[in-house]
Amino acid sequence: AGTLYVVATPIGNLGDLTPRALDTLRTADAVCAEDTRRTRQLLAHYGLQRPLLALHEHNEEAQAAQLVARLQAGGSLALVSDAGTPLVSDPGFRLVRAAREAGVRVSPVPGACAAIAALSVAGVPSDRFVFEGFLPAKAAARRQRLQQLAGETRTLLFYESAHRIEESLADCVEAFGGERHAVLARELTKLFETVLDGPLADLHARVRADADQRKGEFVLIVEGAGDDETARIAEGRRLYARLAEHLP
Ligand code: SAM
């Protein structure tokens, strides 16, 4: 049987495609892409023209069986997403699962990932961290999610887009307190790369005051709750549990 290669592509700077990724894209029988138009442009930049197959959220389940059959027949496929590492807040896990279930070899060609790139320059405790991906789009669900994370002691990583960054920062201030240390990494590896750090309230104020700081793509990193905070939240839970005994 063939191999399914899961290939990371750049998150901005096109110099970040690894030589092995280039080689894999050149030699695979076909490239499965989230958006074939974007991937065609990316490949053209490296002087490649390859057969492309669309694999996105809406057709992945249906396509997976066909692609696995192709792999079983001996073909090799490269899976890419629009940017960074496939499956990380991107499509691909259904195909990878189907391939593994069928006993097909799945092999990584690692490279850029926005979350890890941001963590590597954040200067926050990074031996334990939680990747939360995108927060819910609806305000109520987003606030609830953040509330649930308020006592988390590990470093928190979020993906965010330009049109929601200000709101999300405001909600983080509400849930974690304005004093909590955070890092906002914007447009990593691109022309307007900016990494801001400080208390959440300050970051929110800077983003609100400066429209340029709301442009592009973001990774928001929030330090975990300290011991004081964990103790405070635990105390709150204890009080609530005692109170709940007396509630109807
Ligand atoms: N698979 C990708 C990866 O490995 O990072 C993530 C794909 S997800 C659909 C896109 C999100 O990743 C953006 O909304 C942003 O939060 C983050 N992102 C991607 N490129 C970025 C960059 N250059 N700088 C900061 N964040 C970025």
Automatic annotation (TrEMBL):
Protein's gene: rsmI
Assigned protein family: Belongs to the methyltransferase superfamily. RsmI family.
Role this protein plays: Catalyzes the 2'-O-methylation of the ribose of cytidine 1402 (C1402) in 16S rRNA.
Enzyme Commission numbers on file: 2.1.1.198
Compartment(s): Cytoplasm
Keyword set includes Methyltransferase: yes
Protein name per Swiss-Prot or TrEMBL: Ribosomal RNA small subunit methyltransferase I
Catalytic function, reaction form: cytidine(1402) in 16S rRNA + S-adenosyl-L-methionine = 2'-O-methylcytidine(1402) in 16S rRNA + S-adenosyl-L-homocysteine + H(+)
UniProt-recorded Gene Ontology molecular function terms: rRNA (cytosine-2'-O-)-methyltransferase activity
Top-tier EC class: transferase
Record GO cellular component, one term: cytoplasm
Domain of life: Bacteria
Full protein: residues contained: 36 to 283 of 313
